[in-house]
Amino acid sequence: METNSFNDGKKFIKQRFARALSSYNDNAVVQQQIHNRLIELLQLTGKTSFKRILEIGCGTGGYTQQLTSVCSANEWIVNDLFDNCIQNVSDCFFDKSWKYLPGDAEQLIFPGTFDMVTSASCIQWFNSPRLFIQRIAAQLTDGAVLLLNTFGQNNFYEISTITGKGLAYVSLEHIKDWVNPHFDILYLQEEEIKLQFPSPMKVLHHLKSTGVTGTNANFWTRKMLQAFCDEYVDRYSVNNDVTLTYHPVYLLAVKNN
């Protein structure tokens, strides 16, 4: 079972992201780059018209907005863990036929079949991404598109190497094993994006503002926090800044017969 090693389950995730909704768009610079890359991959398929699209983890609606600007569908099903994310995506659709289904995507039963399922920066939070992909494959028509990203093993390694805490990220080989029985992989690649911040505290502020806090900093003492900052500066300084590494992994696949 693929589980993360530091959070308290979906309740913890929900609390973190709920606190970050108002600050997310101004701080999620890497997530915006990821959205752009996913749209580029979608355009490589040459498909712009779909019958039914399912988006998992719409969040603040940034990816939803880009999707609706480059492709059309007879019906969109949009999901997020939060009930109130419907407010973030409603303006993306205007008169398009769409439905918002809040809740845990690993537990929900999505209605009908789809010819595209897509998700941006979401499935790394799942208890079992492998089982989710297996289940959703059964609801995809032949030739349907699976387009998503997750994160690789070097994601936030500055945080995890100091604290010993972080998500259980997986390798490309694991992702291939999840996908290959059900899909033909058209694209599976990874990249590293390094951000720079003036201090470790600014790193923690950035993570908190995007809801992806890599540590349980609320439970730190002042002494523990100072030790973390000192070690961060000692190990990950570049000129007068410190680094934070994102390691996105992109997947484009089509359902096989």
What does this protein structure show overall?
The chain is α/β, with parallel strands linked by helices and 257 residues long. It has one domain: 3-Layer(aba) Sandwich (Rossmann fold), CATH 3.40.50.150. Helices cover 38% and strands 27% of the residues. The protein is built from nine helices and ten strands. The strands form two sheets. The chain has a seven-stranded mixed β-sheet with strand order 3-2-1-4-5-10-6, sandwiched between helices. Strands 7-9-8 form a three-stranded antiparallel β-sheet. Helix 5 (129-137) links the parallel strand 4 and strand 5. The two termini are 28 Å apart. The relative contact order is 0.17.
As a percent range, the share of helical residues equals 25-40%
CATH homologous group name: Vaccinia Virus protein VP39
Order of helices and strands: HHEHEHEEHEHHEEHHEEE
The beta-strand count equals 10
**Tally of alpha and pi helices:** 9
* CATH fold-type name: Rossmann fold
**Class derived from helix and strand content:** alpha/beta
